[in-house]
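Request: Mind sharing a record?
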Amino acid sequence: MHPLITRYQQQTRRAFFGRSALGVGSAALASLLEREAAAKQVDAAHPHFSPKAKRVIYLLQNGAPSHVDLFDYKPQLRVSHGQQIPDAIQGGKRLSTMTGGQKERPVLAPIAQFAQRGESGAWVSDLLPQTAAIADELCFVKSMQTDQVNHAPAITFFMTGAEMPGRPSMGAWLNYGLGSDSEDIPGFVVMTSRDKEASCGQIFYDYYWGSGFLPSKFQGVKFRSSGDPVLYLSDPQGMSRTMRRGLLDTVNALNSLKLDAFGDEEIATRIAQYEMAYRMQMSIPELADFSDEPQSILDLYGPDVHRRGSFAYNCLMARRLAERGVRFVQLMHAGWDQHRNLNSQLAIQCADTDAPSAALVMDLKQRGLLEDTLVVWGGEFGRTPFLQGKIADTKRWGRDHHPYAFTIWMAGGGIQPGMSYGASDDFAHNAVENPMSVHDLQATMLHLLGIDHERLTFKFQGRRFRLTDVHGEIVRPLLA
């Protein structure tokens, strides 16, 4: 092949734009400059008003906790146990393929006892004794709804405002719109954990904390459960910190030349990330050192607090990150997908997560951080009030995915404590009072952070996108 043709075929799109002085090259450069100017304008505009919350800790319970067994007490379920759920209630609504073809749908009573807790009288299952003890600090939303019946699109919807991957996650939007109060730790940190029994095979996809079409410097940084919390944090063997600094300065100088020549914001991201990584070499070891924590605090989080990668460990890390100014901490804990093991696995899952979740709220409160830290606990949907399987097969009792009414709780950060909002019907099947959508939740969270959800936008492919798409209403009764 002719060498000139080969050269043209191997030329990258970025190099083509970079070398074009006129025509398409000028248009591309103008587009980049306009995008950068828009980003600066948005950054300068936020927050839009005085915020109640400065940061978010999102405790996402992958797999969907059973609201029927944990929070949404319905006496009718015990009365109708074993009977077919009324057609007027189920109404032919869409289900997952696991029960979509199931002809018999017997009502399944809660597998544990409920009681009213605290002065607020919130109903909480005996499976969550520590959460029950702090019921007056919590706001329970019992009328959550979503559009999805499968895990990955439902989690993506909660995290990004869209069911399909590719949109920026909530933490990325906040990192973009508000920046970070920490210079030595990323503004958006993610940690994952799972049940010890590995009872379900859910995957933690990177796009759950991705930046989508926002510059990649806004994406979440995942802390690992083994080795260095962040890859390549340690200096290579034989390299001193002085040598590392010199090497970094040289690389950044070269990247700066490329940035001046091409105007590509991803080069600016690379420079910023190299600098952050260098500072993290000092900040992360101190962050992960629990030796300064009083024994009473460690006991509060439970015996798993020293096991890296556990939910308890991650909850204590979340509080330490909040102290250091991190804007958005996303904890994801898998294992709630109890299709055939409700009688055995739900209690185990509750034991692993109950004390750490309650400890986080109380720890933040006693340090004066809860008032400006918004804590959110919940899954991507709920579980069906009817049984998946046969009523006689008690060892394999389970519940399928249920998007039509489920419960989450929130605390701190301008949320009204000691209240329950919304309600489901007598079978905990449909939201019948104050239904709350995923976009409503997102709009309310942004409002608490001082952001008008309709004004936090980013222009991409000719359209201004936002976390709440074209939906979302602030749920003002939740606000303190």
